[in-house]
Amino acid sequence: MTLGGEGSSGFKFSKETKSKMSKTRKGMNCGEKSGNAILTEETVKIIKIKLANGEKVIDIANEFKIPKECISSIKQLNTWKHVLPELENEIKKYMNKFINKNIAKEIKIMLAKGINIDDIINKFNVSRRTVKNIKYFKAWSNILPELNEKIREYTKDNIITEDEVKEIKKMLANNERIIDIMNALKVNRDAISNIKQLRTYKYILPELNEKIKKG
Predict the structure, then answer these.
(1) How confident is the model at residue 199 (pLDDT cuts 50, 70, 90)?
(2) Domain ranges of the chain
(3) At residue 54, what are phi and psi to the nearest 5 degrees?
(4) Is the pTM of this model over 0.70?
(5) Burial class (CB in 10 A: 0-12, 13-18, 19+), 175
(6) How far is it, in rounded angstroms, from Cα 84 to Cα 90?
């Protein structure tokens, strides 16, 4: 779908609009209720038209020189819902973007390496649901099936044995990297991070807590 008149995204900006866009880029906040909001209604209209035309969040954020979270908030209809509400259905079509076989392969490779879901989301500009569907084999399980077992290792439950916790704490106390501990013990990142931040298992080898905290 293309909305509006001429231009790369199907919309031609007036001089007045371009001026507002320029001023918008200089601000700091993007919420509609913020007194210092960097986005005006006119700019949000432009952003929504771009989203309705399927443009990527990261590309729009780069164009306007604003955090991608601002654009994502508009795309997810969390803010500025009253602006061009007639575009809502068009924007929703792009919320869970279809990914092709090559992207699915790259995502599976990253999951098999134990890379954090948030890092994958940011790299490919896809939804959390898309990545989780691949991670838990609800989608693309037939792609690179030889990686499935490795991915399962990194989806292991956060419930780990006391011996594993002791080993993790000793490795953390020796300043070993989380990724190396993950690979060595086949425990997921969240479980190790929680131990490192002393959110869990503080009572096991408590004498190492201070050293881990400083590491």
Answers:
(1) confident
(2) 15-92, 101-153, 162-214
(3) 85, 10
(4) no
(5) exposed
(6) 11
